[in-house]
């Protein structure tokens, strides 16, 4: 009886740990980054295309910061638990566009975390200044 109880306890711990790691990331909802910028994904279709809004907390322009639309795509083809994604923000308050690419992770505590990289393209007046348009 003691062996059976011990086996069930070990089995339940193993299954419980597997359940945390198998938790699937859900991109829908509200996200806030370390600098206070926030993103809200409001719609996603079966193909993984999504849309929402981005409100940045940081900018290089002196213009008033405004909420800007975003459109993206989530990799759902392989039904991964921690999927990759990408999205574009067309800034409503400046003449620039930013693309983000990243992955949604579930950490050891079961918390969903987005890790991203971005590339921003600003408008320049001529091709001679192309070198300073991308950050």
Automatic annotation (TrEMBL):
Disulfide bonds join 25-104. The keyword Secreted applies. One of its GO terms (molecular function) is biotin binding. Its main location: secreted. One of its GO terms (cellular component) is extracellular region. Keywords: Biotin, Disulfide bond, Glycoprotein, Secreted, Signal. InterPro entries: Avidin (IPR005469), Avidin-like_sf (IPR036896), Avidin/str (IPR005468), Avidin/Streptavidin-rel (IPR051764). It is found in: Secreted. Residues 1-22 form the signal peptide. It comes from the Eukaryota. Homotetramer. Belongs to the avidin/streptavidin family. Forms a strong non-covalent specific complex with biotin. This is Avidin. It comes from Smithornis capensis. The lineage of its organism: Eukaryota, Metazoa, Chordata, Craniata, Vertebrata.
């Amino acid at each position: 009886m003691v062996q059976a109880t011990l086996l069930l306890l070990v089995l339940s711990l193993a299954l419980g740990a597997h359940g945390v790691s198998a938790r699937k990331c859900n991109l829908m909802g509200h996200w806030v980054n370390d600098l206070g910028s926030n993103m809200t994904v409001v719609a996603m279709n079966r193909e993984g295309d999504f849309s929402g809004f981005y409100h940045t907390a940081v900018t290089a322009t002196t213009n008033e910061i405004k909420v800007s639309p975003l459109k993206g795509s989530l990799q759902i083809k392989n039904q991964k638990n921690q999927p990759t994604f990408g999205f574009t923000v067309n800034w409503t308050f400046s003449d620039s566009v930013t693309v983000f690419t990243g992955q949604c992770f579930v950490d050891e505590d079961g918390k969903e975390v987005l890790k991203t990289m971005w590339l921003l393209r600003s408008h320049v007046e001529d091709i001679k200044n192309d070198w300073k348009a991308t950050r």
